[in-house]
Design brief:
Layout lengths: L9 H16 L18 H13 L3 E7 L17 H20 L4 E7 L1 H8 L3 H18 L4 E4 L1 H5 L5 H12 L3 H10 L1 H17 L7 H29 L4 E4 L10 E2 L16 E4 L5 E4 L1 H7 E6 L2 E7 L1
Parallel strand pairs: 1-2, 1-4, 2-3, 4-5, 6-9
Antiparallel strand pairs: 6-7, 8-9
């Protein structure tokens, strides 16, 4: 078979487009690194991920695990359904795809991998609330005309027949790493240790109905944090199996050199904060910021959207 050589400069063109796509993402990178003046060549793993679809002239597919459900802590959120935080975050992600299409005309698509059912027993949120949240996300995408985004959850993998517990068991048994492996990494790997600490903090704060002592509550949060990390790894591997070749985004801070790229959805004083652990405060200058509800309530007045609390406006 005769192989036709690529035109001169074709490889350079692919590299240039990959760098341009990454340059769109870099200002929104979620990281704990001290420096933020990164250039695309500091992320060779991500450039390699982009090279396939760019060279093939195909849309870039991003997968983003997250948008699980609202925190069960009423001091953090306004309720159990998506609100202004999710609306703004989804609009941002759809706009990000549009900006990528300006440098890569085949465009981009974002798959929101809603993982609430993966963790619901560990984060102590009823599965019915998680279904309502994921269904409302889909409605929000439709109502806002966010055509570059899709929602993917366990119902897309295992259908409606199995119980949520059975689905979680299948995911865990097939994909989850051994507990001992994660415990060892928590002691030896700094990003894993930070992730464990961040998840433990969230679980401790969200254990509002815990009836025991503070130390028992802390022990429970630590134990469940390892379970969340196991399921998170399992969910990531399942996503990779269902979306091969996709560019993996993360709502957690990621160091340089990671296979995942951390993405910041909205401004927040805490690098770990997400729309589902907080609510929006709109400042007088139009800037929107994620804050815990208790903090936003002190600084602003509530705003309703379609009859439900949506966010706060300062002043």
């Amino acid at each position: 078979m005769l192989t036709v050589p690529a035109p001169p400069g074709a490889r350079a063109d692919v590299q240039a487009v990959c760098a341009a796509v990454l340059a769109v993402l870099l200002p929104h990178r979620r990281t704990l690194d001290a420096g933020h003046g990164d250039t695309p060549d500091a992320f060779p793993a991500q450039l390699r991920q982009l090279a396939g679809p760019v060279a093939a002239g195909e849309p870039i597919v991003f997968t983003l695990p997250g948008f699980p459900c609202k925190s069960p802590n009423p001091a953090k959120v306004l309720g159990h359904l998506p609100d202004e935080g999710e609306r703004l975050a989804l609009r941002f992600l759809d706009g990000l795809c549009a900006r990528i299409a300006a440098v890569h005309p085949p465009g981009a698509r974002m798959v929101i991998c809603s993982d609430g059912h993966v963790f619901s027993d560990l984060i102590q949120v009823p599965d019915r609330d998680i279904d309502a949240y994921a269904d409302a996300l889909r409605t929000l995408l439709h109502d806002e005309g966010l055509t570059q985004l899709d929602v993917f959850d366990l119902r897309d993998v295992y259908g409606q027949e199995l119980s949520h517990d059975a689905k979680r068991t299948l995911v865990h048994e097939r994909y989850a790493p051994a507990l001992e492996t994660l415990q060892s990494l928590t002691r030896t790997d700094e990003p894993t240790r930070r992730l464990y600490q961040g998840i433990t903090r969230f679980l401790f704060e969200d254990s509002v109905s815990f009836a025991g002592t503070r130390s028992a509550r802390q022990r429970s949060a630590r134990r469940r944090a390892y379970g969340v990390m196991q399921r998170s790894r399992a969910w990531g591997d399942l996503i990779a199996a269902h979306h091969p070749g996709a560019f993996r985004l993360s709502i957690h801070p990621q160091p340089r050199g990671s296979a995942k790229f951390g993405i910041r959805l909205l401004d927040a004083p805490d690098v770990w904060l997400t729309p589902w652990h907080s609510c929006v405060l709109e400042h007088a200058d139009g800037r929107r910021e994620l804050l815990h509800r208790a903090d936003a309530e002190r600084l602003g007045r509530p705003v309703l959207r379609q009859g439900r609390p949506s966010h706060f406006v300062a002043g």
